[in-house]
Amino acid sequence: MQRLLYIIIYPALWFTSVLPMSILYIKSSVLYQLTYHIFGYRKKVVFENLKLAFPSKTEAERTQIAKGFYKHLCDLIFETIKSLTISENQIRKRFTIENIELLEKLYNNNRSILLMAGHYGNWEWSGIVNKMMQHQGFAVYKPLDNKQFDSLVKKIRSRFGATIVPNTRITKVLYRYKKEETTTLTYILSDQTPRPDAFKHREDFMGINVPVFTGTEELAKLLDFTLLYFKVEKVKRGYYKATFVPVSENPKEDTDYKNTRKFLDLLEAQIKEEPAYYLWSHKRWKHRGK
């Protein structure tokens, strides 16, 4: 059944992906009307999250953020579909990186990198960084139960040269490359919600005490990799710019959880500045402290 569903859906996704961006954004605007005004996709979750994160804002202000989020989410859906066929030249115009020279400097110093990112802006187009660097690129993901759609996700995220590695295998893979003296850069979405029975630490995120994912920091300590934050900003519809922000050059020397806190501070600053571009439909605060 899952294979049949994939056989039906994939051609529609592919034919959608070859349409011009102008047409895709018309479709996105229609989808916004459906998801926000008609079906109310995860609307309760979104408004609960916004109330938790911005208790001092008025209901009208939170509604404005929610509408902006749904518009961005619908754009992101079609931008992700476009990833199936978008050319390198086109994505380079739409996703620019301000200080790529920092990667060159770290590469020349034989420094491998763990790139910490959040569900902010467009994380699906971040793979273009692989075309701009000398590091061997990896991206960490959580495999899907549906094998066909899991393969599709890997295909999209590896189009520009990254090797997609399951979260359960990334430590072994990076350790092997380190032994081979291969300099790597690994992209990790580090604002994931850990299982309530599988976390080591809690922090305040947007003023709310929650379990936090500390795996990126722990991996950096174990392998002695440089930590960077990937700050992605939405310039306008369909256009993004990204900046590498140093988190720690020598994480082995840092106290536990210091760099997880720095990551959260950097992500919070972006959310507070432009809140509509965060993934508010994600149940990030479901295990919050009482």
UniProtKB/TrEMBL annotation:
Alphabetically list the UniProt keywords.
Acyltransferase, Cell inner membrane, Cell membrane, Membrane, Transferase, Transmembrane, Transmembrane helix
Write one Gene Ontology MF term: acyltransferase activity
- Major localization listed first in the record, in broad terms: membrane
Output the InterPro entries linked to this UniProt entry.
LipA_acyltrans
Write out the transmembrane intervals.
6-26
Output the superkingdom of the source species: Bacteria
Q: Where in the cell is it found?
A: Cell inner membrane
Q: Which Pfam families match?
A: Lip_A_acyltrans
Key word Heme present: no
Q: What is this protein called?
A: Lysophospholipid acyltransferase family protein
Q: What is the lineage of its organism?
A: Bacteria, Pseudomonadati, Bacteroidota, Flavobacteriia, Flavobacteriales
